[in-house]
Amino acid sequence: MKTAVEELGIPHRVVQDNVIEILKSYGTRYWSTAVLVDRRGVVQYYHICEGAYPEFEAVIQRLLAEEKWPGARGTSVRYTGRGTNSHP
């Protein structure tokens, strides 16, 4: 993941929780679970299982706009279903 973050020029922290310690700290028992935490440490989005990518993207865009993140306007990520962590 470090290589992908560097190649994509992602300026913020990215966490990969391979041993599920972070998810357990949020009280979840399910894999896979997506948790989006804002810069204040407040959970803004929580979703159990795969899917809900448009909803997840909408929360990301809202947070970027609220924080006036440089380059956020018109920036979006499109889920393609391809990559090292995607299912066939």
- What percentage of residues falls in helices of 4 or more residues? 25-40%
The parts where pLDDT drops under 50 for at least 5 residues are: 73-88
Q: What's the oligomerization state?
A: single chain
Q: Please state the CA-atom Rg, rounded to the nearest Å.
A: 14 Å
Description:
The protein is an alpha+beta fold and 88 residues long. It has a domain at 2-49. Helix content is 31%, strand content 12%. The protein has helices at residues 2-8, 21-25, 53-67, and strands spanning 33-37, 43-48. Strands 1-2 form a two-stranded antiparallel ribbon. A hairpin with a 5-residue loop joins strand 1 and strand 2. The radius of gyration is 14 Å and the shape is globular. It starts with a helix and ends in a 21-residue tail after the last helix. The model is unreliable at 73-88 (pLDDT under 50).
Short descriptors:
disordered C terminus; alpha+beta; 88 residues; two-stranded antiparallel sheet
Which helices and strands occur, and which strands form pairs?
Blueprint: H1 2-8, H2 21-25, E1 33-37, E2 43-48, H3 53-67
Antiparallel strand pairs: 1-2
